[in-house]
Amino acid sequence: MTLHTSVKSTALEPRAGTALSRRVLTVHGMVVLTVALAIFFSVLRPDTFPTLLNFRLLAAGKAVLLVLALAVSVPMVAGKIDLSVGYAVGLWQVMALSWQIQGMDYRLTIVLVLLGGAVVGAVNALLVELAQVDAFIATLATGQVINAITYWHTGGRQITDTDGKRAQAFDALATWSVGPVPGPFIIALALAVALWVVLEFSPIGRYLYAVGANPKAAELIGVRRRSYVVGAMVTSGVLAAVAGILLSARQGGVVQANIGPEFLLPALAAAFLGSTTIRPGRVNAWGTVLGVVITTLGISGLQQLLPGRFYLEPLFNGLTLVAAITIASLASRRRLASAERHQATDTPAPAGDGAALAPGRATDDAAADEATAPVQQPEGSTT
Protein backbone atom coordinates (compact mmCIF):
# COMPACT_ATOMS: atom_id res chain seq x y z
CA MET A 1 0.00 0.00 0.00
CA THR A 2 1.32 3.39 -0.95
CA LEU A 3 2.20 5.60 2.01
CA HIS A 4 1.94 9.38 1.65
CA THR A 5 4.51 10.22 4.26
CA SER A 6 6.24 13.25 2.79
CA VAL A 7 5.99 16.54 4.66
CA LYS A 8 6.85 18.48 1.56
CA SER A 9 4.30 21.06 0.57
CA THR A 10 0.93 19.60 -0.30
CA ALA A 11 -0.46 23.07 -0.81
CA LEU A 12 -1.97 23.50 -4.23
CA GLU A 13 -0.04 26.49 -5.52
CA PRO A 14 0.48 26.26 -9.31
CA ARG A 15 3.79 24.85 -10.43
CA ALA A 16 6.55 27.01 -11.90
CA GLY A 17 5.80 28.05 -15.45
CA THR A 18 2.04 28.13 -14.97
CA ALA A 19 0.32 30.96 -16.82
CA LEU A 20 -0.08 34.15 -14.77
CA SER A 21 -3.86 34.19 -15.17
CA ARG A 22 -4.14 30.67 -13.77
CA ARG A 23 -1.83 31.48 -10.88
CA VAL A 24 -3.91 34.52 -9.98
CA LEU A 25 -7.16 32.58 -10.11
CA THR A 26 -5.78 29.62 -8.17
CA VAL A 27 -4.00 31.53 -5.41
CA HIS A 28 -5.94 34.78 -5.28
CA GLY A 29 -9.25 33.79 -6.81
CA MET A 30 -11.10 34.42 -3.54
CA VAL A 31 -9.54 37.87 -3.32
CA VAL A 32 -10.84 38.64 -6.80
CA LEU A 33 -14.26 37.31 -5.82
CA THR A 34 -14.29 39.45 -2.67
CA VAL A 35 -13.54 42.59 -4.65
CA ALA A 36 -16.17 41.64 -7.21
CA LEU A 37 -18.79 41.15 -4.48
CA ALA A 38 -17.93 44.50 -2.91
CA ILE A 39 -18.28 46.26 -6.26
CA PHE A 40 -21.49 44.39 -7.11
CA PHE A 41 -23.29 45.28 -3.88
CA SER A 42 -21.90 48.82 -3.93
CA VAL A 43 -23.45 49.39 -7.35
CA LEU A 44 -26.80 47.93 -6.32
CA ARG A 45 -26.94 49.61 -2.90
CA PRO A 46 -24.76 52.74 -3.19
CA ASP A 47 -26.51 54.53 -0.31
CA THR A 48 -25.99 51.82 2.32
CA PHE A 49 -23.36 49.22 1.37
CA PRO A 50 -20.18 51.24 0.54
CA THR A 51 -20.53 53.53 3.56
CA LEU A 52 -18.30 54.12 6.56
CA LEU A 53 -21.19 53.30 8.89
CA ASN A 54 -21.69 49.92 7.25
CA PHE A 55 -17.97 49.19 7.53
CA ARG A 56 -17.94 50.06 11.24
CA LEU A 57 -20.99 47.94 11.93
CA LEU A 58 -19.64 44.94 10.04
CA ALA A 59 -16.11 45.22 11.47
CA ALA A 60 -17.35 45.53 15.06
CA GLY A 61 -20.03 42.87 14.67
CA LYS A 62 -17.80 40.26 13.02
CA ALA A 63 -14.73 40.64 15.24
CA VAL A 64 -15.95 37.82 17.49
CA LEU A 65 -16.50 35.60 14.46
CA LEU A 66 -12.98 36.32 13.19
CA VAL A 67 -11.42 35.37 16.54
CA LEU A 68 -13.50 32.20 16.64
CA ALA A 69 -12.54 31.33 13.06
CA LEU A 70 -8.88 31.64 14.08
CA ALA A 71 -9.63 29.36 17.05
CA VAL A 72 -11.00 26.77 14.62
CA SER A 73 -8.05 27.19 12.25
CA VAL A 74 -5.25 26.38 14.70
CA PRO A 75 -6.24 22.72 15.34
CA MET A 76 -7.01 22.32 11.63
CA VAL A 77 -3.37 23.16 10.87
CA ALA A 78 -2.42 20.17 13.05
CA GLY A 79 -4.95 17.95 11.30
CA LYS A 80 -7.63 18.14 14.02
CA ILE A 81 -10.95 19.90 14.37
CA ASP A 82 -12.44 21.61 17.43
CA LEU A 83 -16.24 21.80 17.49
CA SER A 84 -16.40 22.90 21.12
CA VAL A 85 -15.41 26.52 20.43
CA GLY A 86 -18.94 27.62 19.58
CA TYR A 87 -20.26 26.32 22.89
CA ALA A 88 -17.23 27.62 24.76
CA VAL A 89 -17.74 31.19 23.56
CA GLY A 90 -21.29 30.95 24.93
CA LEU A 91 -20.05 29.86 28.35
CA TRP A 92 -17.29 32.45 28.59
CA GLN A 93 -19.47 35.38 27.59
CA VAL A 94 -21.81 34.37 30.43
CA MET A 95 -19.05 33.91 33.01
CA ALA A 96 -17.28 37.15 32.03
CA LEU A 97 -20.39 39.05 33.15
CA SER A 98 -21.58 36.78 35.96
CA TRP A 99 -18.33 36.92 37.89
CA GLN A 100 -18.33 40.71 37.74
CA ILE A 101 -21.93 40.84 38.98
CA GLN A 102 -20.78 38.70 41.93
CA GLY A 103 -18.19 41.36 42.77
CA MET A 104 -15.05 40.04 41.07
CA ASP A 105 -12.63 42.57 39.55
CA TYR A 106 -12.91 42.61 35.77
CA ARG A 107 -9.17 42.01 35.32
CA LEU A 108 -9.31 38.88 37.44
CA THR A 109 -12.41 37.83 35.52
CA ILE A 110 -10.54 38.11 32.22
CA VAL A 111 -7.63 36.07 33.58
CA LEU A 112 -9.96 33.34 34.89
CA VAL A 113 -11.84 33.18 31.59
CA LEU A 114 -8.59 32.77 29.66
CA LEU A 115 -7.42 30.08 32.08
CA GLY A 116 -10.78 28.36 31.72
CA GLY A 117 -10.36 28.39 27.95
CA ALA A 118 -6.94 26.77 28.33
CA VAL A 119 -8.44 24.08 30.59
CA VAL A 120 -11.15 23.29 28.05
CA GLY A 121 -8.49 23.02 25.34
CA ALA A 122 -6.40 20.73 27.56
CA VAL A 123 -9.40 18.46 28.20
CA ASN A 124 -10.01 18.23 24.47
CA ALA A 125 -6.34 17.42 23.94
CA LEU A 126 -6.42 14.66 26.57
CA LEU A 127 -9.42 13.06 24.92
CA VAL A 128 -7.89 13.30 21.45
CA GLU A 129 -4.31 12.31 22.27
CA LEU A 130 -4.44 10.25 25.48
CA ALA A 131 -7.78 8.49 25.03
CA GLN A 132 -7.37 8.48 21.21
CA VAL A 133 -10.96 9.63 20.65
CA ASP A 134 -11.66 11.07 17.22
CA ALA A 135 -11.37 14.86 17.45
CA PHE A 136 -14.77 15.41 15.82
CA ILE A 137 -16.53 13.22 18.39
CA ALA A 138 -14.45 14.36 21.37
CA THR A 139 -14.89 18.09 20.84
CA LEU A 140 -18.58 17.72 19.96
CA ALA A 141 -19.07 15.86 23.25
CA THR A 142 -17.18 18.43 25.33
CA GLY A 143 -19.15 21.14 23.54
CA GLN A 144 -22.39 19.57 24.72
CA VAL A 145 -21.08 19.38 28.29
CA ILE A 146 -20.06 23.05 28.10
CA ASN A 147 -23.50 23.93 26.78
CA ALA A 148 -25.10 22.07 29.69
CA ILE A 149 -22.91 23.97 32.17
CA THR A 150 -23.96 27.25 30.58
CA TYR A 151 -27.65 26.42 30.92
CA TRP A 152 -27.15 25.15 34.47
CA HIS A 153 -25.43 28.37 35.51
CA THR A 154 -28.02 30.66 33.91
CA GLY A 155 -31.04 28.48 34.58
CA GLY A 156 -31.86 29.02 30.94
CA ARG A 157 -32.62 32.66 31.68
CA GLN A 158 -31.07 35.91 30.57
CA ILE A 159 -28.58 37.45 32.99
CA THR A 160 -28.68 41.24 33.23
CA ASP A 161 -26.40 43.61 35.13
CA THR A 162 -29.27 45.75 36.43
CA ASP A 163 -27.14 47.32 39.20
CA GLY A 164 -24.27 48.29 36.93
CA LYS A 165 -21.67 46.23 38.81
CA ARG A 166 -19.57 45.49 35.75
CA ALA A 167 -16.58 47.73 35.13
CA GLN A 168 -16.78 50.48 32.53
CA ALA A 169 -13.30 49.46 31.44
CA PHE A 170 -14.71 46.05 30.56
CA ASP A 171 -17.36 47.56 28.29
CA ALA A 172 -14.65 49.75 26.77
CA LEU A 173 -13.09 46.61 25.26
CA ALA A 174 -15.92 46.70 22.72
CA THR A 175 -16.34 50.46 22.30
CA TRP A 176 -12.83 51.82 21.71
CA SER A 177 -11.61 52.52 18.21
CA VAL A 178 -8.73 53.94 16.22
CA GLY A 179 -10.27 56.44 13.85
CA PRO A 180 -13.06 54.64 12.00
CA VAL A 181 -11.71 51.16 12.83
CA PRO A 182 -13.45 49.49 15.81
CA GLY A 183 -11.22 48.22 18.59
CA PRO A 184 -12.52 44.62 18.62
CA PHE A 185 -11.68 44.33 14.94
CA ILE A 186 -8.16 45.59 15.64
CA ILE A 187 -7.79 42.95 18.37
CA ALA A 188 -9.00 40.22 16.03
CA LEU A 189 -6.70 41.41 13.25
CA ALA A 190 -3.73 41.53 15.65
CA LEU A 191 -4.42 37.90 16.60
CA ALA A 192 -4.53 37.00 12.90
CA VAL A 193 -1.17 38.70 12.32
CA ALA A 194 0.32 36.86 15.31
CA LEU A 195 -0.97 33.54 13.99
CA TRP A 196 0.40 34.31 10.52
CA VAL A 197 3.85 35.09 11.94
CA VAL A 198 3.90 31.89 14.00
CA LEU A 199 2.71 29.65 11.16
CA GLU A 200 4.83 31.13 8.39
CA PHE A 201 8.07 32.20 10.09
CA SER A 202 8.62 30.06 13.18
CA PRO A 203 9.63 26.42 13.75
CA ILE A 204 6.39 25.91 15.69
CA GLY A 205 4.35 26.71 12.61
CA ARG A 206 6.48 24.49 10.38
CA TYR A 207 6.13 21.56 12.75
CA LEU A 208 2.38 22.12 13.07
CA TYR A 209 2.06 21.95 9.29
CA ALA A 210 4.25 18.84 9.27
CA VAL A 211 2.03 17.17 11.87
CA GLY A 212 -1.07 18.13 9.93
CA ALA A 213 0.39 16.91 6.63
CA ASN A 214 1.31 13.49 7.99
CA PRO A 215 1.79 12.62 11.68
CA LYS A 216 3.87 9.50 10.97
CA ALA A 217 6.31 11.35 8.77
CA ALA A 218 6.58 14.10 11.37
CA GLU A 219 7.48 11.55 14.05
CA LEU A 220 10.07 9.99 11.73
CA ILE A 221 11.97 13.27 11.70
CA GLY A 222 11.73 13.75 15.46
CA VAL A 223 8.76 16.10 15.76
CA ARG A 224 6.93 15.64 19.06
CA ARG A 225 3.53 15.25 17.44
CA ARG A 226 1.55 14.94 20.66
CA SER A 227 2.99 18.15 22.10
CA TYR A 228 2.01 20.15 19.05
CA VAL A 229 -1.51 18.75 18.94
CA VAL A 230 -1.97 19.57 22.63
CA GLY A 231 -0.62 23.07 22.06
CA ALA A 232 -3.00 23.60 19.13
CA MET A 233 -6.04 22.50 21.14
CA VAL A 234 -5.10 24.68 24.12
CA THR A 235 -4.54 27.67 21.83
CA SER A 236 -7.97 27.07 20.32
CA GLY A 237 -9.53 27.08 23.78
CA VAL A 238 -7.82 30.34 24.74
CA LEU A 239 -8.90 32.05 21.51
CA ALA A 240 -12.48 30.92 22.15
CA ALA A 241 -12.21 32.54 25.58
CA VAL A 242 -11.00 35.79 23.98
CA ALA A 243 -14.03 35.68 21.68
CA GLY A 244 -16.27 35.17 24.71
CA ILE A 245 -14.78 38.21 26.45
CA LEU A 246 -15.28 40.43 23.41
CA LEU A 247 -18.83 39.15 22.95
CA SER A 248 -19.72 39.80 26.59
CA ALA A 249 -18.26 43.32 26.48
CA ARG A 250 -20.21 44.10 23.30
CA GLN A 251 -23.56 43.14 24.80
CA GLY A 252 -23.62 45.88 27.43
CA GLY A 253 -24.44 43.88 30.52
CA VAL A 254 -26.86 41.33 29.05
CA VAL A 255 -25.97 37.68 28.36
CA GLN A 256 -27.97 34.54 27.69
CA ALA A 257 -27.19 30.87 27.39
CA ASN A 258 -28.21 30.28 23.78
CA ILE A 259 -25.66 32.73 22.35
CA GLY A 260 -22.51 31.04 21.13
CA PRO A 261 -23.31 27.89 19.14
CA GLU A 262 -24.63 30.08 16.31
CA PHE A 263 -21.04 31.21 15.68
CA LEU A 264 -19.74 27.69 15.06
CA LEU A 265 -21.00 27.12 11.51
CA PRO A 266 -19.81 30.47 10.07
CA ALA A 267 -16.45 30.02 11.82
CA LEU A 268 -16.00 26.59 10.24
CA ALA A 269 -17.13 27.95 6.87
CA ALA A 270 -14.57 30.77 7.06
CA ALA A 271 -11.73 28.42 8.04
CA PHE A 272 -12.49 25.87 5.31
CA LEU A 273 -13.01 28.60 2.75
CA GLY A 274 -9.72 30.18 3.79
CA SER A 275 -7.88 26.94 3.07
CA THR A 276 -8.72 27.32 -0.61
CA THR A 277 -7.00 30.68 -1.06
CA ILE A 278 -3.72 32.53 -0.39
CA ARG A 279 -2.08 29.18 0.44
CA PRO A 280 -4.52 26.91 -1.39
CA GLY A 281 -4.59 23.43 0.05
CA ARG A 282 -3.72 24.32 3.62
CA VAL A 283 -5.26 26.35 6.43
CA ASN A 284 -3.63 29.76 6.81
CA ALA A 285 -4.29 32.91 8.81
CA TRP A 286 -4.90 35.34 5.95
CA GLY A 287 -7.11 32.83 4.18
CA THR A 288 -9.24 32.59 7.31
CA VAL A 289 -9.48 36.39 7.49
CA LEU A 290 -10.53 36.45 3.84
CA GLY A 291 -13.09 33.71 4.52
CA VAL A 292 -14.70 35.87 7.21
CA VAL A 293 -14.61 38.93 4.95
CA ILE A 294 -16.24 37.23 1.98
CA THR A 295 -19.00 35.65 4.07
CA THR A 296 -19.61 38.97 5.81
CA LEU A 297 -19.84 40.88 2.54
CA GLY A 298 -22.06 38.26 0.96
CA ILE A 299 -24.52 38.10 3.85
CA SER A 300 -24.61 41.86 4.38
CA GLY A 301 -25.14 42.53 0.69
CA LEU A 302 -27.92 39.96 0.36
CA GLN A 303 -29.68 41.24 3.48
CA GLN A 304 -29.63 44.75 2.08
CA LEU A 305 -30.94 43.57 -1.27
CA LEU A 306 -33.56 41.28 0.30
CA PRO A 307 -34.44 42.81 3.69
CA GLY A 308 -36.37 40.71 6.17
CA ARG A 309 -35.17 37.37 4.80
CA PHE A 310 -33.86 35.92 8.06
CA TYR A 311 -32.97 32.62 6.42
CA LEU A 312 -30.28 34.21 4.25
CA GLU A 313 -27.46 34.04 6.79
CA PRO A 314 -27.72 30.33 7.71
CA LEU A 315 -28.37 29.47 4.06
CA PHE A 316 -25.31 31.40 2.88
CA ASN A 317 -23.09 29.93 5.63
CA GLY A 318 -24.27 26.39 4.89
CA LEU A 319 -23.75 26.67 1.16
CA THR A 320 -20.36 28.30 1.67
CA LEU A 321 -19.23 25.50 3.98
CA VAL A 322 -20.36 22.81 1.52
CA ALA A 323 -18.63 24.58 -1.37
CA ALA A 324 -15.39 25.08 0.57
CA ILE A 325 -15.20 21.45 1.74
CA THR A 326 -15.99 20.21 -1.77
CA ILE A 327 -13.30 22.38 -3.36
CA ALA A 328 -10.73 21.35 -0.75
CA SER A 329 -11.62 17.65 -1.11
CA LEU A 330 -11.41 17.67 -4.90
CA ALA A 331 -8.13 19.57 -4.82
CA SER A 332 -6.66 17.20 -2.25
CA ARG A 333 -7.58 14.14 -4.30
CA ARG A 334 -6.07 15.72 -7.40
CA ARG A 335 -2.88 16.41 -5.48
CA LEU A 336 -2.66 12.87 -4.09
CA ALA A 337 -3.27 11.39 -7.53
CA SER A 338 -0.46 13.52 -8.92
CA ALA A 339 1.86 12.41 -6.08
CA GLU A 340 1.08 8.74 -6.78
CA ARG A 341 1.90 9.18 -10.46
CA HIS A 342 5.22 10.81 -9.64
CA GLN A 343 6.01 8.12 -7.06
CA ALA A 344 5.25 5.35 -9.56
CA THR A 345 7.53 7.02 -12.10
CA ASP A 346 10.39 7.49 -9.64
CA THR A 347 10.29 3.96 -8.09
CA PRO A 348 13.83 2.48 -8.31
CA ALA A 349 14.44 -0.80 -10.07
CA PRO A 350 15.30 -3.96 -8.00
CA ALA A 351 18.91 -4.57 -7.06
CA GLY A 352 21.10 -6.16 -9.73
CA ASP A 353 21.70 -9.33 -7.70
CA GLY A 354 17.95 -10.06 -7.85
CA ALA A 355 17.46 -9.72 -4.11
CA ALA A 356 13.89 -8.70 -3.34
CA LEU A 357 13.29 -5.79 -1.02
CA ALA A 358 11.21 -6.40 2.06
CA PRO A 359 7.57 -5.43 1.51
CA GLY A 360 7.06 -1.75 2.31
CA ARG A 361 10.74 -1.16 3.07
CA ALA A 362 11.48 0.88 -0.06
CA THR A 363 8.42 3.04 0.52
CA ASP A 364 9.30 3.66 4.16
CA ASP A 365 12.93 4.52 3.43
CA ALA A 366 11.89 6.91 0.70
CA ALA A 367 9.41 8.49 3.06
CA ALA A 368 12.09 9.03 5.69
CA ASP A 369 14.43 10.56 3.13
CA GLU A 370 11.70 12.88 1.91
CA ALA A 371 10.79 13.86 5.45
CA THR A 372 14.20 15.04 6.61
CA ALA A 373 15.12 18.17 4.66
CA PRO A 374 11.72 19.74 4.00
CA VAL A 375 11.11 20.30 7.69
CA GLN A 376 12.81 23.63 7.25
CA GLN A 377 9.89 24.83 5.14
CA PRO A 378 7.06 22.32 5.29
CA GLU A 379 3.67 23.31 3.96
CA GLY A 380 1.13 20.74 5.11
CA SER A 381 -2.51 20.28 4.20
CA THR A 382 -5.33 19.42 6.58
CA THR A 383 -7.70 18.33 3.87
Nearest-angstrom radius of gyration? 23 Å
Largest sheet: 2 strands, antiparallel
Distance between the termini: 20 Å
Biggest sheet strand line-up: 1-4
Q: Write down the overall geometry.
A: globular
Number of strands: 4
The average pLDDT is: 83
Which range does the strand content fall in?
under 5%
Helix count, DSSP H or I runs of 4 or more residues: 15
How does the helix and strand content classify structurally? Answer: mainly alpha
Helix-strand string: HHHHHHEHEEHHHHEHHHH
Low-confidence stretches: 1-10, 349-383
User: Helicity level, as a percent range?
Assistant: 55-70%
Please tell me about this protein's structure.
The chain contains 15 helices and four strands. With 383 residues, the protein is an all-alpha fold. Strand 2 and strand 3 (181-182) form a beta hairpin. The protein is globular, with a radius of gyration of 23 Å.
